Structure prediction request, 562 residues.
Amino acid sequence: MAEVLVVTSGKGGVGKTTSTAALGAALAQTGRTVAVVDFDVGLRNLDLVMGAERRVVYDLINVANGDVRLQQALIRDKRIETMYLLAASQTRDKDALSEEGVRRVIGELRDRFDWVICDSPAGIERGATLAMRYADLAVVVTNPEVSSVRDSDRIIGLLDSKTIKAARGERMEKLLLLTRYDKVRAGRGDMLGIEDVLEILSIPLLGIVPESEEVLRASNLGAPVTMSNPTSAPARAYMDAARRLCGESIAMTIPSERQNLLSKLFGGRRAA
Amino acid sequence: MLKPEPPLAGWLAELDDWLTRSPGFFTGKPLILDVAGLAFTRDDIAGVIAELRTRSIRILGIEGADPATLDDTLPPLLTGGRTSGSVEAIEAVEAVARRAQATKEAATREAAAKEAAAKEAAEAAKAAGEPVATNSADPAATSSTEPGHKPANATPNGPTPEQAASASRVPSLLVETPVRSGQTIMNAEGDVIILGSVASGAEVIAAGSIHVYGALRGRALAGVYGNASARIFCRRFEAELVAISDFHKVTEEIEAGLRQKPVQAWLSDNELKVASLDQTDKEAIKWQKS
Prediction:
């Protein structure tokens, strides 16, 4: 039985899709079977970040509506064979998704995988609430910046009221993933500090992903950052976060690029 | 101030929707019907007032109507309407205010009247039922039965006279979780006590006082039915807005030095005052003396 995880944030552009892909790949790299599901119907992106945009035939809507079997719509990753993608439809909108359809798809995925990771659309409307509806736990992606923090707070409120788990009176587990963190700017006070964000949101911290060009490069390459450059600072941050998701206790650090540069030099010298 | 929007049926449905989320929101509030620009006839206005009356909303006056359309059976025409804070002065005050008054009298009476007070309070408590916590996003999930949103002094089966006499007569609402952005916590009868923080973009509304044991970053509106003795207390003051009765202040109007401090807000001579709760703070003592 899978753990169903929703990656959500309220605000757009904070790194939900990047984090979905990176966490999914990091979990799959440990041998677990992973399905990443794009819920951003109408604005699908996850297929691009996963480098599978040319292989999408059927999508989440087709499966949810019962047009095709789940098997036909799942796209297996070419690099990690335990990772699958269920893409969103680009031509439909969020209204095309029925709650019953989503329930059935998540139920089927649950039986087949160790982890099901749902990439939520931005906003607090139907698409976002459907993505979180059947989740067991949530990763709330937040940038250290006031509007992102407030939106995350709003999403946490919805996670506590709109999910099936909340409706049953159970506690919805919520974990904070702080992305695009810049140590220097936080030090200068241009950015909210980690402590400030944690104090405001008061949920446990899953990881801190530093701001890095590697993330953009990875997206353009069509590979999760944990695959494109596994030794980069954001990749290590995501891999640590994935291990924490699996219950390992790992000291909370902010990986930095300088270390990475040294290891690159070292690696280069060794190769020469 | 209520301003109907055409089509009327749609507006009333919206109002009903709002009332299911925040029952008692208009209770005891003096309301003015604004019909400016709506070209309502006398019958239209009377119809709207009748519809509102079925929802326990009483209209005190009308604004923006042609004087010729109004007659003696309709509320008077007003200009520049502003809600008044005095609950006692308004005839149309509903059960809530009457109960509050009854319990207030009961509280001030001495031991000689104890029996009568107990009886009265028991009735009041029974009639009062439980306070409501509403969430603009999902009313069902944040009813008062939700864990963490427990009314402090109400038992599910209604208090016995003994319990009611010993317990506070107006039920307070205890919220043990943080109040998230976009959520509204409302107690239309008594105090609201929040153990966590109130996020920016969240709202706490109480007929009585508001106590926040975390940071207050959202809005706090105490004494919303005109209770001028209501106060707001918080451990860390970063509020967007505080209001007591009819008086409010936004962050800009409050001394910046109070930010992040433990603070209380109260009404004094029709002025909303905000001061530090920290007694060692000289500034606070100065404030409280004034």
Summary: The first strand of chain A starts at residue 3 and ends at 8.
